Amino acid sequence: ISVTEKSKALTKKVKIALSLTSDDIMDILEEAGVIVSKGELTAIFRKEGHKHYMECGDKYARNFLKGLAKRYRSWINSKLSNEAAFSYAKIIIEMINTRLPSEKNAH
Prior knowledge:
mainly alpha; single chain; globular
């Protein structure tokens, strides 16, 4: 699986898991310093081969996660101890690695 496909899958899974709208994602990306139009955002989530398809480079996934961290950091810190937050992060990383096979396994 390419970096583009991994980035798109990660962003879509988090979007669905947190019930985020396109406006929410645009706000989250803006918090990370990336301004995206609604048209550009929908192009990123289109299937490859669609007329208006646009690759979801790691720039979007990286800044989406950065924006999420900024948005939810205070809430997470108030709810979790440092040990619990670290454990939670490890679980999320394991889930991502399990569901998004490495490029070696894709061949």
